């Protein structure tokens, strides 16, 4: 049968998903990319304005928790692969309201697994269910060491626990039913289109508006930052060349203490906004720490680099500058988001801190 490849991307209107959809639509004109997204507060079709009219792209508004909707989708298309990104993704929201994380991240993933399994009916040739996950499933590190693909799971927030559960279900479907699956676990992403509840876009937005920049605790927590297009490139590589049943770690080899990162961002923003050096730094405000705040994440991505030849961009400052430029020149995108809902979220999250 000479049919073009049809790939379901879930969560394609979100931050990372939109970069993945754009990359696949542009790089693979012979594929059909079906983007299924519920359009929660984090999903935004403006992220995909530039490709929405492409003939190899379709959007469909679907809640992955809705079993019937997923089954209908798999009846309408014969999918060769699934790249599953749809999730509730913000740790702070998982602390104030874990339920949605259980519904979308666990139940939604199981709905997709069941439907793919049923629809592919044991004929798994050329099929792949690729689940996108996070390094947070491995828990928190002290000052030494890195997460490898063999590190035991030790999730500590409702977000990471829900992602760990979904990873376990994906592995269970591989081992029990033979479903061809791959999982990748990635470190913190940054770049254009990230919702301004996460550290970097929140800080950019606040600095731009001369608002306090909240740093949790003493700002000593460490994250490994990866430019989002590098993640999308890794997903492309793993989708096409990864070994079925396996796991790949993805990371930038780029660890920063939050306070050092914010200081660098302040310097970049002063320069870009033409403000005297030190202006933005005065906005830094230490606030009450996040409960159960993981101290450090660090990921060893040597397997992906050595086996599949992937490499992240080496220059974090350049990536951060590019990100700041994008936010400053896309103020309409930001203004559309900074609606009543965002203000309410912001007040509830930060007013007591
Ligand atoms: P995001 O919050 O920006 O986007 C999530 C998308 O999923 C949104 O478009 C939203 O509308 C959609 N969605 C949420 N619930 C849904 C549902 N029930 N049905 C259908 N769609 C739904 O998230 P992101 O930062 O782009 O993360 C994408 C994936 O990558 C997630 O699985 C996340 O766990 C993982 N991840 C993120 C990071 C990071 O730094 N952001 C790092 C590693 C892994
Ligand atoms: P975040 O972007 O929420 O990602 P994650 O919690 O998944 O790593 O936060 C990154 C780090 O920044 C984390 O250590 C928490 C911290 N942080 C702040 O200090 N202030 C903030 O306002 C936010 C949102 C996060």
Structural notes for this entry:
This protein has 353 residues and is α/β, with parallel strands linked by helices. It has a domain at 5-190 and 225-250: NAD(P)-binding Rossmann-like Domain (Rossmann fold), CATH 3.40.50.720. The protein is built from twelve helices and twelve strands. It has helices at 15-27, 67-76, 91-96, 99-120, 158-177, 199-208, 228-241, 258-273, 302-308, 316-329, 331-337, 340-350; strands at residues 6-10, 32-37, 57-61, 81-84, 128-134, 181-186, 188-190, 213-216, 222-227, 247-250, 255-257, 284-287. It has a seven-stranded parallel β-sheet with strand order 3-2-1-4-5-6-10, sandwiched between helices. Helix 1 (15-27) links the parallel strand 1 (6-10) and strand 2. Helix 4 (99-120) runs parallel beside helix 5 (158-177) and helix 6 packs parallel to helix 8 (258-273). The N and C termini lie far apart (60 Å). Thymidine-5'-diphosphate binds at residues 91, 188, 198-199, 202, 214-216, 221, 223, 258, 290. The site of nicotinamide-adenine-dinucleotide (NAD) has 32 residues, from helix 1, helix 4, strand 5 and strand 7.
In short:
With 353 residues, the protein is an alpha/beta fold. It is built from twelve helices and twelve strands.
Cα Rg: 20 Å
- Kindly, what is the distance between the CA atoms of the first and last residues, rounded to a whole number of angstroms? 60 Å
What is the number of helical segments per DSSP (H or I, 4+ residues)? 12
Order of helices and strands: EHEEHEHHEHEEHEEHEEHEHHHH
Question: Could you give the order of strands across the largest sheet?
Answer: 3-2-1-4-5-6-10
């Amino acid at each position: 049968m000479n049919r073009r490849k049809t790939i379901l991307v879930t969560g394609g209107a979100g931050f990372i998903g939109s970069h993945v959809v754009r990359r696949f639509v542009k790089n693979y004109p012979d594929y059909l990319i079906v983007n299924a997204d519920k359009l929660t507060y984090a999903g935004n079709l403006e992220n995909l304005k530039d490709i929405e009219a492409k003939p190899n792209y379709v959007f469909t508004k679907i809640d992955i928790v809705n079993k019937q909707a997923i089954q209908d989708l798999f009846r309408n298309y014969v999918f060769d692969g699934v790249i599953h990104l749809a999730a509730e993704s913000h740790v702070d929201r998982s602390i104030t309201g874990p339920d949605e994380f259980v519904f979308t991240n666990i139940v939604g993933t199981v709905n997709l697994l069941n439907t793919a399994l049923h629809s592919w009916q044991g004929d798994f040739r050329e099929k792949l269910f690729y689940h996108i996950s996070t390094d947070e499933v491995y828990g928190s590190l002290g000052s030494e060491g890195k997460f490898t693909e063999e590190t035991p799971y030790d999730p500590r927030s409702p977000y990471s626990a829900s992602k760990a559960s979904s990873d376990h279900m994906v592995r269970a479907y591989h081992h029990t039913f033979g479903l061809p699956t791959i999982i990748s676990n990635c470190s913190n992403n940054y770049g254009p289109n990230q919702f301004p509840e996460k550290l970097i876009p929140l800080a950019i937005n606040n600095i731009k508006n001369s608002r306090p920049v909240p740093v949790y605790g003493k700002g000593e927590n460490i994250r490994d930052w990866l430019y989002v297009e590098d993640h999308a490139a890794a997903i492309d590589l793993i989708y096409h060349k990864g070994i079925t049943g396996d796991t790949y770690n993805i990371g930038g080899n780029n660890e920063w203490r939050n306070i050092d990162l914010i200081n660098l961002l302040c310097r970049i923003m002063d320069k870009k906004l033409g403000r005297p050096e030190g202006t933005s730094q005065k906005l830094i405000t230490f606030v009450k720490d996040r409960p159960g705040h993981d101290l450090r994440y660090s990921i060893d991505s040597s397997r992906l680099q050595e086996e599949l030849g992937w490499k992240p961009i080496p220059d974090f400052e350049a990536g951060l500058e590019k990100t700041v430029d994008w936010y400053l020149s896309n103020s309409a995108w930001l203004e559309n988001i900074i609606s009543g809902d965002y203000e309410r979220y912001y007040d509830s999250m930060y007013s007591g801190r």
